[in-house]
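Let us practice reading a record.
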Amino acid sequence: MNAELKRPIRVLVAKVGLDGHDRGVKVIATAMRDAGMEVIYTGLRQTPEMVVNTALQEDVDAIGISILSGAHMTVFPKLVQLMKEKGMTNVLLTGGGIIPEEDMEVLNKMGVGKLFAPGATTSDIADYITEWTLTHRGN
């Protein structure tokens, strides 16, 4: 899958805020590893600042946020702002969880990548991250 890249795709997955439901994010982390990606899972109760700082330190290609708490309209804009401040224009911000379609559209216009609803397949998520990385990283 990553034959065109000089190194594996690096993905950071995180749970931001007080959302303690981590079963789904662990499934995603395992699936991304199975797809040949290097995965950094930050664990529960992260702040947007912690996520962005870890992403910088780990030199990731993508950040995936799992959110079930309803705070997506606060968390994602804050992450976009912090990523812009740090010059992280070549890092994909994606995620999934319980996010209404109208909110997904607003977040996409703000610069958040594709967001995945419950029922999305792990292969669709891996394919999306891979294609985005191939297009934006170019090595």
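A brief commentary: DSSP finds five helices and five strands in the chain.
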